[in-house]
Amino acid sequence: MTAKWTRRLFRHLCTLPSAVKKHFCYGAIQRIEAAIATSEQQHLGEIRFAVEARLPLSALLAKKTAKHRALEVFSSLKVWDTEHNNGVLIYLLLADHDFQILADRGIHQHVESQGWEHISRHMEHMFKQGKFEAGVIEGISKISEHLIQHYPAQGENKNELPDAPVVL
């Protein structure tokens, strides 16, 4: 085992599930859900937020990264399964101090990697200040700008995915 891997294992073992509640109390979860709901009234896209305190031991032993886990969550939450292929997932892994923004191909073709990087930098800045709720809401706001531009609400705007954040 390398020292880096050992430190990561230790961080995951020491990060308790209660870490999510420390950064995202019930009120914060409700406000994030409201931000997603308000956002989705303005466009045809779908935004999901998922937060996880730590990876399961099996995932750590398989050396899964936050990006690998985010892809699994993207699939399990069916973010890829929207009518316009414009779902976006914000995934936060507290033990690794890492997060990912994953977008389906419809919206990704418009925003591209540079656009997601720009949003990530804003969120990362807030996370480093300990402003986790504000960082997520800022991310939702910035993602919404792109979704409004490329998929504005028109006619029936059905909500294809739940707005509630997912605590894994």
Q: How is the topology of this model organized?
A:
Elements lengths: L2 H12 L3 H6 L2 H15 L5 E7 L4 H5 L4 H11 L10 E7 L4 E6 L1 H24 L3 H19 L15 E2 L1
Parallel strand pairs: 1-2, 1-4
Antiparallel strand pairs: 2-3
Protein name: TPM domain-containing protein
> What is the rounded Rg?
16 Å
Which CATH class? Alpha Beta
State the secondary-structure class: alpha/beta
Helix content: 40-55%
In N-to-C order, the SSE pattern is HHHEHHEEHHE
The overall pLDDT, averaged over residues, is: 95
Task: State the total count of DSSP E strands.
Answer: 4
Summed up, the helix count is 7
CATH architecture, by name, is Roll
Major β-sheet annotation: 4 strands, mixed
**Total of domains:** 1
What is the spatial order of strands in the main beta sheet?
3-2-1-4
Distance between the termini: 27 Å
Query: Which parts are unreliable, with pLDDT below 50 for 5 consecutive residues or more?
Result: none
Coarse morphology: globular
Strand content: 5-15%
Q: What is the CATH topology assignment?
A: Diaminopimelate Epimerase, Chain A, domain 1
Account of the protein in words:
The protein has 168 residues and is an alpha/beta fold. It has a single domain, classed as Diaminopimelate Epimerase, Chain A, domain 1 (Roll), CATH 3.10.310. It has 7 helices and 4 strands; from the N terminus they run αααβααββααβ. The chain has helices spanning 3-14, 18-23, 26-40, 57-61, 66-76, 105-128, 132-150; strands at residues 46-52, 87-93, 98-103, 166-167. A 4-stranded mixed sheet has the order 3-2-1-4, sandwiched between helices. Strand 2 and strand 3 form a beta hairpin. The radius of gyration is 16 Å and the shape is globular. The chain starts with a helix and ends with a strand. The mean pLDDT is 95.
